[in-house]
Amino acid sequence: MKIIEVKAFPISFKVPKGSGVRLGIGLAVKRDAVLIKVITDEGIIGWGEAHHGRCPGAIAKLIDTTIKELILGMNPLHNVEIWRKIYKMQLSSHGMGYASTMALSGLDIALWDIKGKYFNSPVYKLLGGSEKKIPSYAGGIALGWQQPESLVEEAHKHISNGYKAIKLRVGDNLKDDFLRVKTVRENIPEEIKILVDANTNYSLQDVQKAMPFYEENEVFWLEEPFPAMEFNNYKVARSFGNLSIAAGENHFTRYEFARLIEDNVVSFAQPDVSKTGGITELIRISNLMSGWNISINPHTSLTAINMAASIHILASIDNSGFFEGDVTSFNPFRDEMGTKPYSLDEKGFVDVLKLPGIGIEIDENFLQKFPLIEGPCYI
Length: 379
Prior knowledge:
It contains 13 helices and 14 strands. It is an alpha/beta fold. It folds into two domains: 3-121, Enolase-like, domain 1 (2-Layer Sandwich), CATH 3.30.390; 124-350, Enolase-like C-terminal domain (TIM Barrel), CATH 3.20.20.120. It is globular.
Protein backbone atom coordinates (compact mmCIF):
# COMPACT_ATOMS: atom_id res chain seq x y z
CA MET A 1 0.00 0.00 0.00
CA LYS A 2 1.25 3.48 -0.90
CA ILE A 3 0.35 7.08 -0.15
CA ILE A 4 -0.82 8.72 -3.36
CA GLU A 5 -2.22 12.03 -2.12
CA VAL A 6 -1.98 14.37 0.86
CA LYS A 7 -4.26 17.39 1.17
CA ALA A 8 -4.59 20.02 3.90
CA PHE A 9 -7.85 21.82 4.71
CA PRO A 10 -7.36 25.07 6.66
CA ILE A 11 -10.76 25.94 8.14
CA SER A 12 -12.12 28.71 10.38
CA PHE A 13 -15.24 30.07 11.98
CA LYS A 14 -15.99 33.36 13.70
CA VAL A 15 -16.90 33.31 17.36
CA PRO A 16 -20.49 34.61 17.62
CA LYS A 17 -20.68 38.20 18.79
CA GLY A 18 -20.96 38.44 22.55
CA SER A 19 -19.84 34.85 23.23
CA GLY A 20 -16.08 35.31 23.03
CA VAL A 21 -14.14 34.24 26.12
CA ARG A 22 -11.23 36.31 27.41
CA LEU A 23 -8.26 34.48 28.86
CA GLY A 24 -4.51 34.93 29.28
CA ILE A 25 -3.79 34.89 25.54
CA GLY A 26 -6.56 37.35 24.65
CA LEU A 27 -10.20 37.45 23.57
CA ALA A 28 -11.25 34.64 21.24
CA VAL A 29 -12.68 36.12 18.02
CA LYS A 30 -12.31 33.18 15.63
CA ARG A 31 -11.28 29.52 15.77
CA ASP A 32 -8.98 27.76 13.31
CA ALA A 33 -7.93 24.21 12.49
CA VAL A 34 -5.99 22.38 9.81
CA LEU A 35 -7.32 18.98 8.77
CA ILE A 36 -5.20 16.54 6.77
CA LYS A 37 -6.56 13.98 4.31
CA VAL A 38 -4.26 11.13 3.27
CA ILE A 39 -5.32 8.84 0.39
CA THR A 40 -3.80 5.45 -0.39
CA ASP A 41 -3.66 3.46 -3.62
CA GLU A 42 -6.06 0.96 -2.03
CA GLY A 43 -8.70 3.63 -1.55
CA ILE A 44 -8.32 3.89 2.23
CA ILE A 45 -8.55 7.47 3.48
CA GLY A 46 -7.19 8.75 6.78
CA TRP A 47 -7.97 12.04 8.51
CA GLY A 48 -5.85 13.96 11.00
CA GLU A 49 -5.77 17.36 12.66
CA ALA A 50 -2.71 19.61 12.84
CA HIS A 51 -2.76 22.51 15.26
CA HIS A 52 -3.14 25.80 13.44
CA GLY A 53 -0.19 27.52 15.14
CA ARG A 54 -2.17 30.77 14.90
CA CYS A 55 -1.26 30.73 11.19
CA PRO A 56 -3.36 27.95 9.63
CA GLY A 57 -2.69 28.95 6.04
CA ALA A 58 1.06 28.55 6.55
CA ILE A 59 0.68 25.14 8.23
CA ALA A 60 -1.56 23.98 5.36
CA LYS A 61 0.94 25.21 2.75
CA LEU A 62 3.74 23.32 4.49
CA ILE A 63 1.66 20.13 4.40
CA ASP A 64 0.61 20.55 0.76
CA THR A 65 4.18 21.07 -0.43
CA THR A 66 7.21 19.96 1.61
CA ILE A 67 5.53 17.34 3.82
CA LYS A 68 3.62 15.85 0.90
CA GLU A 69 6.73 15.62 -1.27
CA LEU A 70 8.60 13.79 1.49
CA ILE A 71 6.09 10.99 1.92
CA LEU A 72 4.36 10.33 -1.42
CA GLY A 73 4.86 6.70 -2.37
CA MET A 74 5.66 5.55 1.17
CA ASN A 75 3.73 2.82 2.96
CA PRO A 76 1.22 4.53 5.31
CA LEU A 77 1.46 1.63 7.77
CA HIS A 78 5.11 2.50 8.43
CA ASN A 79 4.35 5.28 10.94
CA VAL A 80 7.75 5.24 12.60
CA GLU A 81 9.69 5.37 9.33
CA ILE A 82 7.60 8.31 8.09
CA TRP A 83 7.90 10.10 11.44
CA ARG A 84 11.67 9.68 11.44
CA LYS A 85 12.01 10.93 7.85
CA ILE A 86 10.11 14.13 8.56
CA TYR A 87 12.03 14.60 11.80
CA LYS A 88 15.33 14.29 9.94
CA MET A 89 14.37 16.50 7.00
CA GLN A 90 12.38 19.18 8.83
CA LEU A 91 12.95 19.18 12.59
CA SER A 92 16.56 18.22 13.13
CA SER A 93 18.13 20.88 10.91
CA HIS A 94 17.18 23.77 8.60
CA GLY A 95 13.46 23.07 8.75
CA MET A 96 10.34 24.85 9.90
CA GLY A 97 10.68 23.85 13.55
CA TYR A 98 7.47 23.77 15.56
CA ALA A 99 5.39 24.32 12.41
CA SER A 100 6.81 21.06 11.08
CA THR A 101 5.93 19.30 14.33
CA MET A 102 2.32 20.47 14.04
CA ALA A 103 2.14 19.31 10.43
CA LEU A 104 3.72 15.99 11.35
CA SER A 105 1.23 15.60 14.20
CA GLY A 106 -1.78 15.85 11.93
CA LEU A 107 -0.19 13.55 9.37
CA ASP A 108 0.60 10.92 12.00
CA ILE A 109 -3.00 10.92 13.26
CA ALA A 110 -4.18 10.35 9.68
CA LEU A 111 -1.76 7.44 9.30
CA TRP A 112 -3.11 5.79 12.44
CA ASP A 113 -6.62 6.33 11.08
CA ILE A 114 -5.56 4.48 7.92
CA LYS A 115 -3.93 1.71 9.92
CA GLY A 116 -7.10 1.15 11.96
CA LYS A 117 -9.25 1.03 8.85
CA TYR A 118 -6.80 -1.32 7.12
CA PHE A 119 -6.90 -3.77 10.03
CA ASN A 120 -10.61 -3.07 10.74
CA SER A 121 -9.78 -2.08 14.31
CA PRO A 122 -10.14 1.04 16.46
CA VAL A 123 -6.80 2.66 17.16
CA TYR A 124 -6.85 1.98 20.90
CA LYS A 125 -6.87 -1.78 20.23
CA LEU A 126 -3.86 -1.47 17.91
CA LEU A 127 -2.12 0.34 20.75
CA GLY A 128 -2.93 -2.42 23.23
CA GLY A 129 -5.63 -0.43 25.00
CA SER A 130 -8.95 -1.32 26.55
CA GLU A 131 -12.45 0.12 26.86
CA LYS A 132 -11.74 1.73 30.21
CA LYS A 133 -13.60 4.79 31.44
CA ILE A 134 -11.66 8.06 31.17
CA PRO A 135 -12.33 10.88 33.69
CA SER A 136 -12.97 14.25 32.09
CA TYR A 137 -12.85 17.87 33.22
CA ALA A 138 -14.73 20.88 31.83
CA GLY A 139 -12.21 22.74 29.68
CA GLY A 140 -11.97 24.23 26.21
CA ILE A 141 -12.50 27.96 25.66
CA ALA A 142 -14.79 28.56 28.63
CA LEU A 143 -14.88 29.73 32.26
CA GLY A 144 -12.79 32.79 31.44
CA TRP A 145 -12.20 36.26 32.83
CA GLN A 146 -15.79 37.08 33.72
CA GLN A 147 -17.78 38.19 36.73
CA PRO A 148 -17.55 35.71 39.63
CA GLU A 149 -21.31 35.22 39.73
CA SER A 150 -21.30 34.36 36.04
CA LEU A 151 -18.51 31.85 36.62
CA VAL A 152 -20.48 30.17 39.40
CA GLU A 153 -23.52 29.89 37.14
CA GLU A 154 -21.47 28.41 34.31
CA ALA A 155 -19.66 26.03 36.66
CA HIS A 156 -22.97 24.70 37.97
CA LYS A 157 -24.10 24.02 34.40
CA HIS A 158 -21.06 21.88 33.68
CA ILE A 159 -21.30 20.09 37.01
CA SER A 160 -24.96 19.29 36.37
CA ASN A 161 -23.88 17.73 33.05
CA GLY A 162 -21.65 15.31 34.94
CA TYR A 163 -18.23 16.97 35.20
CA LYS A 164 -16.41 16.35 38.48
CA ALA A 165 -13.63 18.84 37.71
CA ILE A 166 -13.63 22.28 36.07
CA LYS A 167 -10.87 24.54 34.75
CA LEU A 168 -10.93 28.27 35.51
CA ARG A 169 -8.84 30.76 33.54
CA VAL A 170 -6.51 32.92 35.59
CA GLY A 171 -3.56 35.08 34.52
CA ASP A 172 -5.54 38.33 34.81
CA ASN A 173 -4.54 40.45 37.81
CA LEU A 174 -4.14 38.52 41.06
CA LYS A 175 -6.95 40.37 42.83
CA ASP A 176 -9.52 39.31 40.24
CA ASP A 177 -8.01 35.84 39.85
CA PHE A 178 -8.31 35.23 43.59
CA LEU A 179 -11.85 36.57 43.77
CA ARG A 180 -13.01 34.34 40.93
CA VAL A 181 -11.41 31.20 42.35
CA LYS A 182 -12.59 31.86 45.92
CA THR A 183 -16.16 32.61 44.80
CA VAL A 184 -16.40 29.45 42.73
CA ARG A 185 -14.78 27.32 45.45
CA GLU A 186 -17.32 28.56 48.02
CA ASN A 187 -20.30 27.92 45.76
CA ILE A 188 -19.70 24.45 44.32
CA PRO A 189 -19.55 21.06 46.07
CA GLU A 190 -16.24 20.45 47.83
CA GLU A 191 -15.69 17.18 45.95
CA ILE A 192 -15.52 19.05 42.61
CA LYS A 193 -11.91 19.68 41.64
CA ILE A 194 -10.85 23.16 40.50
CA LEU A 195 -7.98 23.46 38.04
CA VAL A 196 -6.59 26.89 37.09
CA ASP A 197 -4.85 27.84 33.84
CA ALA A 198 -2.76 31.01 33.56
CA ASN A 199 -2.14 30.55 29.82
CA THR A 200 1.54 31.55 30.34
CA ASN A 201 0.51 34.97 31.69
CA TYR A 202 2.06 34.87 35.18
CA SER A 203 5.42 36.21 36.35
CA LEU A 204 7.53 34.52 38.99
CA GLN A 205 6.33 37.15 41.47
CA ASP A 206 2.71 36.35 40.62
CA VAL A 207 3.22 32.65 41.22
CA GLN A 208 5.00 33.28 44.51
CA LYS A 209 1.94 35.20 45.73
CA ALA A 210 -0.59 32.87 44.13
CA MET A 211 0.71 29.50 45.34
CA PRO A 212 -0.37 29.87 49.00
CA PHE A 213 -3.79 31.19 48.01
CA TYR A 214 -4.47 28.39 45.57
CA GLU A 215 -3.31 25.79 48.07
CA GLU A 216 -5.61 27.27 50.71
CA ASN A 217 -8.53 27.07 48.27
CA GLU A 218 -7.72 23.48 47.33
CA VAL A 219 -6.86 24.11 43.70
CA PHE A 220 -5.88 20.81 42.08
CA TRP A 221 -3.27 22.17 39.66
CA LEU A 222 -1.85 25.40 38.27
CA GLU A 223 -1.46 25.08 34.51
CA GLU A 224 1.13 26.81 32.36
CA PRO A 225 2.05 29.75 34.57
CA PHE A 226 4.92 30.59 32.17
CA PRO A 227 5.80 30.18 28.49
CA ALA A 228 7.15 26.71 27.72
CA MET A 229 10.70 27.85 26.96
CA GLU A 230 11.13 29.64 30.31
CA PHE A 231 12.52 26.50 31.93
CA ASN A 232 14.21 28.28 34.81
CA ASN A 233 10.98 29.97 35.92
CA TYR A 234 9.36 26.55 36.24
CA LYS A 235 12.30 25.31 38.32
CA VAL A 236 12.20 28.31 40.66
CA ALA A 237 8.40 28.18 41.04
CA ARG A 238 8.63 24.65 42.40
CA SER A 239 10.15 26.10 45.57
CA PHE A 240 7.19 28.38 46.26
CA GLY A 241 4.83 25.73 47.62
CA ASN A 242 3.28 22.31 47.21
CA LEU A 243 0.71 23.15 44.54
CA SER A 244 0.98 20.82 41.55
CA ILE A 245 2.06 22.40 38.27
CA ALA A 246 0.74 21.15 34.93
CA ALA A 247 2.30 21.93 31.54
CA GLY A 248 2.94 20.46 28.12
CA GLU A 249 0.48 21.81 25.57
CA ASN A 250 3.24 24.04 24.19
CA HIS A 251 6.05 21.51 24.53
CA PHE A 252 7.03 19.62 21.38
CA THR A 253 8.26 16.04 21.03
CA ARG A 254 9.61 13.73 23.72
CA TYR A 255 12.85 15.68 23.86
CA GLU A 256 11.20 18.72 25.45
CA PHE A 257 9.20 16.50 27.81
CA ALA A 258 12.45 14.84 28.86
CA ARG A 259 13.61 18.30 30.00
CA LEU A 260 10.49 18.65 32.15
CA ILE A 261 11.40 15.38 33.85
CA GLU A 262 15.04 16.31 34.29
CA ASP A 263 14.07 19.62 35.89
CA ASN A 264 11.40 17.95 38.07
CA VAL A 265 8.94 20.77 37.44
CA VAL A 266 5.59 19.19 36.56
CA SER A 267 3.22 16.82 38.32
CA PHE A 268 0.84 16.56 35.34
CA ALA A 269 1.85 16.39 31.65
CA GLN A 270 -0.42 17.87 28.97
CA PRO A 271 0.86 17.02 25.49
CA ASP A 272 -1.44 17.92 22.59
CA VAL A 273 -1.62 15.13 19.99
CA SER A 274 -2.04 17.74 17.23
CA LYS A 275 1.09 19.65 18.28
CA THR A 276 3.67 17.39 19.91
CA GLY A 277 4.19 14.81 17.15
CA GLY A 278 0.95 12.85 16.76
CA ILE A 279 -0.10 9.54 18.26
CA THR A 280 3.27 7.89 17.62
CA GLU A 281 5.13 10.52 19.62
CA LEU A 282 2.54 10.95 22.33
CA ILE A 283 2.77 7.24 23.14
CA ARG A 284 6.55 7.69 23.49
CA ILE A 285 5.98 10.69 25.78
CA SER A 286 3.49 8.69 27.85
CA ASN A 287 5.99 5.87 28.30
CA LEU A 288 8.68 8.35 29.25
CA MET A 289 6.46 10.03 31.85
CA SER A 290 5.27 6.70 33.22
CA GLY A 291 8.74 6.03 34.58
CA TRP A 292 8.30 9.02 36.91
CA ASN A 293 4.62 8.33 37.72
CA ILE A 294 3.52 11.48 35.89
CA SER A 295 0.07 11.19 34.38
CA ILE A 296 -0.90 12.22 30.84
CA ASN A 297 -3.72 14.75 30.59
CA PRO A 298 -3.84 15.73 26.91
CA HIS A 299 -4.60 19.28 25.89
CA THR A 300 -7.64 19.34 23.62
CA SER A 301 -7.46 21.22 20.33
CA LEU A 302 -10.45 22.23 18.26
CA THR A 303 -12.00 19.41 16.24
CA ALA A 304 -13.59 16.02 16.81
CA ILE A 305 -10.49 14.34 15.33
CA ASN A 306 -8.15 15.64 18.04
CA MET A 307 -10.64 14.81 20.78
CA ALA A 308 -11.23 11.25 19.60
CA ALA A 309 -7.50 10.63 19.08
CA SER A 310 -6.74 11.87 22.60
CA ILE A 311 -9.22 9.40 24.09
CA HIS A 312 -7.72 6.52 22.07
CA ILE A 313 -4.34 7.34 23.64
CA LEU A 314 -5.76 7.63 27.16
CA ALA A 315 -7.42 4.23 26.73
CA SER A 316 -4.05 2.73 25.78
CA ILE A 317 -1.60 3.90 28.47
CA ASP A 318 -1.07 3.02 32.11
CA ASN A 319 -0.60 6.61 33.27
CA SER A 320 -3.76 8.13 31.84
CA GLY A 321 -5.19 11.16 33.64
CA PHE A 322 -7.95 13.53 32.61
CA PHE A 323 -9.46 14.05 29.18
CA GLU A 324 -10.10 17.75 28.59
CA GLY A 325 -13.78 17.97 27.74
CA ASP A 326 -14.54 20.83 25.36
CA VAL A 327 -17.37 22.87 26.91
CA THR A 328 -16.92 25.80 24.53
CA SER A 329 -20.43 27.17 23.97
CA PHE A 330 -20.17 27.21 20.15
CA ASN A 331 -17.94 24.76 18.26
CA PRO A 332 -19.29 23.34 14.98
CA PHE A 333 -15.97 21.53 14.45
CA ARG A 334 -16.82 19.45 17.49
CA ASP A 335 -20.56 19.08 16.94
CA GLU A 336 -21.24 19.09 13.20
CA MET A 337 -18.12 17.92 11.38
CA GLY A 338 -18.99 14.23 11.43
CA THR A 339 -19.10 11.54 14.11
CA LYS A 340 -19.60 12.78 17.67
CA PRO A 341 -16.18 12.40 19.34
CA TYR A 342 -17.35 11.50 22.84
CA SER A 343 -20.23 11.46 25.32
CA LEU A 344 -19.99 12.33 29.00
CA ASP A 345 -21.77 10.06 31.46
CA GLU A 346 -23.34 11.13 34.75
CA LYS A 347 -20.17 10.25 36.67
CA GLY A 348 -17.93 12.46 34.54
CA PHE A 349 -16.34 9.77 32.37
CA VAL A 350 -15.99 9.44 28.59
CA ASP A 351 -15.70 6.32 26.42
CA VAL A 352 -13.41 5.61 23.50
CA LEU A 353 -14.94 5.28 20.01
CA LYS A 354 -15.26 1.69 18.78
CA LEU A 355 -15.27 2.31 15.00
CA PRO A 356 -12.22 1.38 12.88
CA GLY A 357 -9.40 3.92 12.91
CA ILE A 358 -9.92 7.12 14.89
CA GLY A 359 -13.65 6.65 14.45
CA ILE A 360 -14.47 10.06 12.95
CA GLU A 361 -16.02 10.17 9.49
CA ILE A 362 -15.59 13.61 7.92
CA ASP A 363 -18.20 15.32 5.76
CA GLU A 364 -16.13 17.22 3.16
CA ASN A 365 -19.16 19.24 2.10
CA PHE A 366 -19.26 20.54 5.66
CA LEU A 367 -15.63 21.65 5.42
CA GLN A 368 -16.38 23.77 2.35
CA LYS A 369 -18.70 25.89 4.49
CA PHE A 370 -15.80 27.04 6.69
CA PRO A 371 -13.05 28.51 4.49
CA LEU A 372 -9.92 29.95 6.03
CA ILE A 373 -10.36 33.35 7.68
CA GLU A 374 -7.11 35.32 7.73
CA GLY A 375 -6.05 37.26 10.80
CA PRO A 376 -5.52 36.64 14.52
CA CYS A 377 -7.72 34.23 16.46
CA TYR A 378 -7.18 36.11 19.74
CA ILE A 379 -7.01 39.88 20.19
